[in-house]
Design goal:
Elements: H1 3-13, H2 18-26, H3 34-40, H4 54-69, H5 78-90
Length: about 120
């Protein structure tokens, strides 16, 4: 398993976006761009794929510890972070779905099956 695989699996498991990974790396004074994170998360055969070095993964893991647990001076509860992420993923993003069995009203309601309402009546 490569460093890229580990980074991708942690990214998915913790539901992290590229900008959140950049912020996590800033916690340990490691500067990296979102495009570099994207290059690490590409497939190995992709032209813009970059191998993730040991230094990047090490700093990400150290930053992740601070992000989840906090520092000795200001400890955090990692369960709070994970609960927030779970709650965020459960909220619906799109339009509300109609309840099962309920018909949605059509703009052309009341027309017979053959009429579309788009032609002129003579």
């Amino acid at each position: 398993m490569t460093n890229n695989d580990i980074l991708k699996k942690l990214r998915v498991a913790l539901m992290l976006r590229d900008d959140e990974i950049v912020d996590i790396l800033k916690l340990v004074d490691f500067r990296i761009s979102k495009s570099e994170i994207g290059a690490f998360c590409r497939k190995e055969g992709h032209p813009k794929y970059q191998p993730c070095g040991d230094q990047v993964l090490r700093n990400f893991l150290n930053g992740l510890v601070i992000h989840l647990r906090g520092t000795r001076e200001a400890p955090k509860d990692p369960k709070e972070f994970l609960a927030k992420k779970q709650q965020y993923m459960k909220t619906p993003k799109g339009p509300k779905a109609s309840p099962a069995g309920e018909k949605t009203k059509s703009k052309k309601e009341g027309l017979s099956p053959g009429e579309s309402g788009n032609h002129k009546k003579s």
